[in-house]
Each structure stands twice: as C-alpha cells, then as structure tokens.
Amino acid sequence: xxxxxxxxxxxxxxxxxxxxxxxxxxxxxxxxxxxxxxxxxxxxxxxxxxxxxxxxxxxxxxxxxxxxxxxxxxxxxxxxxxxxxxxxxxxxxxxxxxxxxxxxxxxxxxxxxxxxxxxxxxxxxxxxxxxxxxxxxxxxxxxxxxxxxxxxxxxxxxxxxxxxxxxxxxxxxxxxxxxxxxxxxxxxxxxxxxxxxxxxxxxxxxxxxxxxxxxxxxxxxxxxxxxxxxxxxxxxxxxxxxxxxxxxxxxxxxxxxxxxxxxxxxxxxxxxxxxxxxxxxxxxxxxxxxxxxxxxxxxxxxxxxxxxxxxxxxxxxxxxx
Length: 321
Ligand code: KG4
Ligand code: ZN
Fold this sequence. Notes:
Elements: E1 2-6, E2 11-17, E3 23-30, H1 32-36, H2 43-65, E4 74-80, H3 84-101, E5 105-109, H4 110-116, E6 129-134, E7 139-146, E8 149-155, H5 161-171, H6 179-186, H7 209-229, H8 231-257, E9 262-265, H9 272-277, E10 282-283, H10 286-289, H11 294-300
Parallel strand pairs: 1-4, 4-5, 6-9, 9-10
Antiparallel strand pairs: 1-2, 2-3, 6-7, 7-8
Helix pairs in contact: 2-3, 4-11, 5-7, 5-8, 6-8, 7-8
The structure holds 5'-O-[(R)-(carboxyoxy)(hydroxy)phosphoryl]adenosine and zinc ion.
Zinc ion is lined by residues 110, 114, 135, 266, 291.
C-alpha cells in the first residue's frame, strides 16, 4: 500500500494505491475557487491553503480506501516541479508521516507522475509509447521506453497548452481556470469562423504565445459587444488551433521515434476535441488527467524509495532540470 501526496500547484491531493496499481482512493481538494478572483494561482495563498487541507485530505484518503495507517508501507510525495512553497507543504507532511511510522519515502517528479497515470488499473498501458504531456505548466513530447523514466523530445518555447487555454479564457471573460470552460463553449461555436495561426517552430517544440496575441487582436477588432456575441465561435476557433498543433506534433514525434502507440496525459488531456481528434491514442479517465495523487503513487512504484530516516533533508525543486 502506498499513500501519496500531491501539492505542487492549487490542488491538495492524497491517494491510496496498491502495489499492483489499483486506486483504492483518490481525494482532490481544488483551490480553484479561492484563486479565481485573482485570475490565476497566488503562490502564497496556495501554500497556506495546502497547510490547512493536507492533513484532512490525507485522512479522507485513508478513510475512503478503508486502509488504516498501519497498513501503509510507503509514503510518496511530489518533489517538483511546481510552486516551491506549495511543494514544501506536501513534502513536510509526507516526511512527518513516514518518519513517525518508520516508513520509506518516495520522492516523485510531477511530470513522471502524469505519465504514470497511464499505468493504473484497470487498463494500464505498457511502454514503449510516445506521450504528449499537456498541462497548465508544461507541454512536452516524451519517448517512454520504460516505466518511471521518459526521454524529452520537445517542449514549449513559451506558454504551455493549458496556459494558452487559460489565457484565452481570460480574454473571453470565462474565468479561471479556463480550459474546461473553453471546451464547453467551443461545442456551441463554429471552429472555422476565425483563422488563428499557430507558429510552427523547428524540431518537436511548440509555441503558443502568438496564438494568444491573435485572439487578443481579434477581440479588439470585434469590440466588446461583438466579442460577447461571437464568444462561442472565438472559443471554437481558438481551441481548434491548439488541438491541431498538439495533434500534428504528437504524430511527428511518433514518426520520429518509431514508437507508434501514442498517449496523452495532463490537464489538457481532458479536452473533448483533443480526445476526439486522437481516436487511437490512450487517454486516462478525466479525474486522472488533472492533478491528483493517484498518479504520484503510481509513479512511486517505479522509483527507488529512500529508506527511513534518510529523507529528512529532502528538498523540493521548482523547475524542470
Ligand atoms: O495537469 P493540471 O491539472 O495542472 C498542471 O500540472 O498544470 O492541468 C491544468 C490545466 C489548466 O490549464 C486547465 O485549463 C487545463 O489543464 N484543462 C483543460 C481542460 N480541463 C483542464 N484544457 C482544455 N480542455 C479541458 N477540458
Ligand atoms: Zn500537473
């Protein structure tokens, strides 16, 4: 039994996962409402909220799994990348719990955690495969040849795909976080209404910042009344551009690696148009796309544990290495 913590951004999450990859519980407490009025995550506000929620969320995970703490054999925690203060709350909680029970601790990379969401029961995917990781903080193409480790093929040069969704949503007055709101509104719009170009950069990288500027100019040209009236068309065209960029680069990456099976993970993998555009790709259920601790526990199965008490000096890292 693995008890995992995830506090890298604005979700306080804990989960209990068995060694063979069954999710016995996965509790996610989102702080999105708390940050909505600021239009984005405020790091210090996130840290304080994690501090309030981390113990009750862990308790809820154990209770809903009906697993007493005595049966937990390993504690796992997200070490980075993420907001440093937010990460430290999860790391401190995980260390304290592991130390008090004399258990080993497994530090997990958040991005490898997203990939490991694919290894959970009841329908695990076996490497090798080519993976697109698209979240609020990252957009990466990965060659995954073994569990727990992946090779980076390309990434975004500026905004992440989820960030592009969130910034687009903000321009359209849809609130934060905006990916799901654009997804919903796009269903009512015409994706051919506006031509939003996505920059093609060399290699297997992405660039989304120009797209956001194109949307900004379109809304300026339309004026606020027309923008409001054509909001669904704008959302549909904008979403189409992001999805096209992701799909074409993923296909190119699969050709380049020769790993023809493809998978998509991260918050943007919840997007309905992306899911429809890649009928052959492996997607995990929606609740495992956005940040959660079940994926962290899943990854911990393939990472070396630090034996008690060698983890007391373990530190968080904020950015990609
Ligand atoms: O993986 P995640 O929960 O957090 C990070 O590690 O960043 O991803 C959150 C991102 C946000 O940018 C959010 O807008 C986006 O995932 N997202 C979506 C959808 N649901 C969440 N983007 C597009 N369509 C969705 N349905
Ligand atoms: Zn994430």
